[in-house]
Design brief:
mainly alpha
């Protein structure tokens, strides 16, 4: 290796280290978007809806119970309440315009796993895992943010910690310690998430 190449590599390493130090807590390793809280096209407060008004997560994200994805609620779900409540508020009017123009609201995705990873929301919902386990205390968030790292290590640790899920005769999880018919195991097999 020539002296010039070594100097260039040394300079690049120094600059990278300086950027990491200057950015401090906002520095993230590749694919770790913990703390990511983008501005959304509509100022939606999970604190107001899920916290103050105690609207269950599955009311808006109903697909999480039936599908691998939680889904982004359709604007029509918002209007179930907002056709009567605060219907003249500027943020609600954005929803009304989107519906009149028959166009979707361009929400910015916050929780995004790599394409080589498959995650099934319904399996976790039916296993009794609370949304907050992965998404954090959304009921306290004005603007939704990625609370956990969503790394493979986080998922594997959870599967090791919550290894046994007890179900009743209909297949629904039992959170209490009553006698049961069957036990399901949270898998740590690579092919479960990487297929």
């Amino acid at each position: 290796m020539s002296l010039t190449t070594a100097k260039i590599i040394s300079l690049l390493v120094t600059i990278t280290g300086a950027v990491a130090l200057l950015r401090g807590a906002s520095f993230h390793w590749f694919n770790n978007h913990q703390g990511y809280a983008p501005a959304q096209p509509i100022a939606f407060s999970h604190k107001l809806h899920a916290g103050d008004n105690q609207i269950p997560c599955l009311y808006c994200h109903w697909a999480a119970e039936k599908s691998s994805v939680a889904g982004i609620p359709a604007a029509s779900i918002c209007m179930n309440c907002h056709s009567q409540i605060r219907k003249d508020a500027p943020e609600i009017q954005k929803i009304v315009r989107a519906l009149k123009e028959n166009r979707p609201i361009a929400w910015v995705r916050v929780h995004d796993l790599p394409d080589f990873t498959k995650f099934n929301h319904s399996r976790h919902v039916w296993a009794g895992i609370k949304c907050q386990q992965c998404h954090g205390p959304v009921e306290t968030m004005e603007r939704i943010s990625q609370f956990r790292s969503l790394s493979m290590g986080m998922c594997v640790d959870c599967h090791r910690t919550h290894r046994v899920v007890t179900v009743d005769e209909s297949g629904k999880p039992i959170i209490t310690r009553e006698p049961t018919r069957e036990k399901l195991m949270a898998s740590t097999d690579c092919s479960v998430c990487h297929h």
